[in-house]
Amino acid sequence: MQRPPRALFAGTLTLGVGASLLYLWLRFFAPHLEASLVGALGYLLGTVGLFGLLPYWVPRHARTPDHLLRWNAFIALIGLAHSLLWHILTAATENARLANLFLGIATMGLLWQIALHSVFAAYLVLIRPTKIKLYLLYAYYSFVALSAVFLAFRLESVSGLLTLFLWALALPLIYYSQDAVGLGTRNGTYYLLLVALCAALFLGVEVFPGLFGRDDTILGIYTHLLAISLVIFYAGLLIVPLVTRIGPKAQKSQQLLSLLTAFLEQQQKQESVEGIIETARNTLQELETVQGVYMRLRSAGPQNGSYPRLVEFLFQGLRVKVPHETYIETISNTAEVSRGLPAVAAIVIQRPIMTILSSVPVDALQAVIIGTAEDCFEASDVQLIATLVEQTALFMEALDRRLYQEERRLSRKEIDFLKETREALLPPVPPIFGKVAYHVVFQQHDKTIGGDYYQIEEVVPEKVIDFWLSDCAGSGIAAAYQMAQARAALNTLWPEKLPPEDMLLRLNDALRRVFHKNNFIAATYLRLDLETQTYTLYRPGNPEILYWDPRIQKVEILRPAGVVLGNASSTLVRRILEKHSAPLIPGATWLFFSDGFTEATNLAGEQFGLERLLHLFQTHLAETPEAIARHILQAVQDFVGDTHLGDDGTLIVIRYQP
Amino acid sequence: MEMQLTLSPAADALTVTLAGELDSLSAPKLYDQLSQTLKQHSTVKKITFDCQNLSYISSAGAGILLLSLDNFGHRGVDFELRHVRPEVYNILDLLGLTKVMSVSNG
Question: What CA–CA distances, in Å, run from A14 to A27, A50, A462, A491?
Answer without folding.
Answer: 20, 10, 121, 108
